[in-house]
Design a protein that fits this description.
The chain is mainly alpha-helical. The protein has a single domain, classed as Up-down Bundle (Na+/H+ antiporter like fold). The protein is built from 15 helices and 2 strands. A two-stranded antiparallel ribbon has the order 1-2. Strand 1 and strand 2 form a beta hairpin. The longest helix has 37 residues. The radius of gyration is 19 Å and the shape is globular. It starts with 8 loop residues before the first helix and ends in a 10-residue tail after the last helix.
Length: 341
């Protein structure tokens, strides 16, 4: 029995509306009350924003509680999705992002550098929530993101040096380790512990009908809070430099939808089941912006165009992922063995 998709009710049904409203609310807060963004940024522990960290944890915890441990073991024995995702993350994504950066940002080399750094950093965290929401295989997602985290330690530095043509790029160990531990490892451990305790004490029916809907709503609310925080932090930049933000956004959005579409279609052509295909698509197209931001600041400086480009990336992650969830739901019936949605 695989992980079940949470029952989110009206929050899920109208999520597009809530996300758009959250983006607008965050933008207005950042523009009208810029002190709020400063205050939020100051609430940090070990370089991690406390409000953002709490919100991300609350997104991931219900996702991890939905997985059965035996599915993780089973996922580890199915290498094809992992292999295809690694090809996408490390061979296709960096080259594609470099091409798009040169196409859209040829006159802005530092912006191009920041965008390329995003393209090289594969996602290892919140993408699991989107896989669950789309009805993908979260257990395989956990296994693949763990492989991504390890491969990032080996491949990120040489690929960044190759595509940027800049020497002395450090391995971003700290943001990788923190992201994996806090937003994958810890939620997984606590989620599985909660699952075992509640199933034993309350039974499977109570867990599915009572606990999962509540946790699903909690995850969505935490997601909306994340959107508000992101747009409140960058609201002033968006208002002051809308052209530059739009220019940086162009290759980022193009990269996401090209990668997501390509690595959704390829599994379909290879005869993958829908759950594996959508998992591959989301992980292949996602980026770990914490790694890119840390690298851009270290190499180019906190006030650089590269750093600015990397912080624009997270602004579009939620709306882009949400749109692709809807696209996947509409095309699920195209896969063999999948029922129409």
């Amino acid at each position: 029995m695989k992980q079940s998709r949470p029952t989110l009710g009206k929050l899920e049904k109208y999520m597009t509306v809530w996300v758009l409203l959250s983006m607008a609310m965050g933008f207005l807060l950042g523009k009208l009350v810029p002190e709020l963004g400063i205050w939020i940024e100051q609430l940090q522990v070990s370089d991690i924003s406390v409000p953002m960290g709490v919100a991300l944890f609350l997104i991931m915890y219900p996702t991890m509680a939905s997985i059965e441990f035996k599915e993780l073991v089973k996922a580890a024995k199915s290498p094809k999705p992992a292999i295809l995702t690694l090809v996408g993350n490390w061979m296709v994504a960096p080259a594609l992002m470099t091409l798009l950066a040169r196409l859209f940002l040829n006159s802005y080399p530092q912006f191009a550098a920041g965008v390329i750094l995003l393209g090289i950093a594969p996602c290892t965290g919140m993408v699991l929530f989107w896989i669950l929401l789309a009805g993908g295989d979260v257990a395989k997602g956990v296994v693949i993101t763990a492989i991504n985290a390890l491969s990032t330690l080996i491949l990120y530095t040489p690929l960044a040096a190759l595509y940027l043509g800049v020497g002395g790029i450090p391995i971003p160990i700290d943001p990788i380790a923190k992201s994996v531990i806090l937003f994958v490892g810890l939620p997984l451990a606590l989620g599985q512990t909660t699952r075992r305790i509640l199933l034993k004490k309350k039974g499977e029916a109570w867990f599915r009908e009572r606990f999962q809907p509540i946790m699903g709503n909690t995850a969505v609310i935490a997601l909306l809070v994340t959107v508000i925080i992101l747009f409140s932090l960058k609201g002033e930049i968006i208002a002051e430099e809308p052209f530059l933000v739009g220019l940086i956004s162009a290759p980022l959005l193009a990269h996401f939808f090209i990668m997501a579409s390509l690595f959704y279609i390829i599994p379909w052509l290879l005869g993958f089941q829908y759950g594996d295909a959508v998992t591959v698509a989301f992980i292949s197209s996602g980026t770990q912006f914490e790694v890119a931001i840390a690298t851009a600041i270290t190499v180019f400086g906190v006030g650089s165009g590269a750093a600015l480009a990397t912080v624009v990336g997270p602004l579009w992650e939620v709306p882009s992922m949400l749109l692709f969830v809807k696209i996947a739901a509409k095309t699920k019936h195209r896969f063999s063995g999948s029922k129409g949605s």
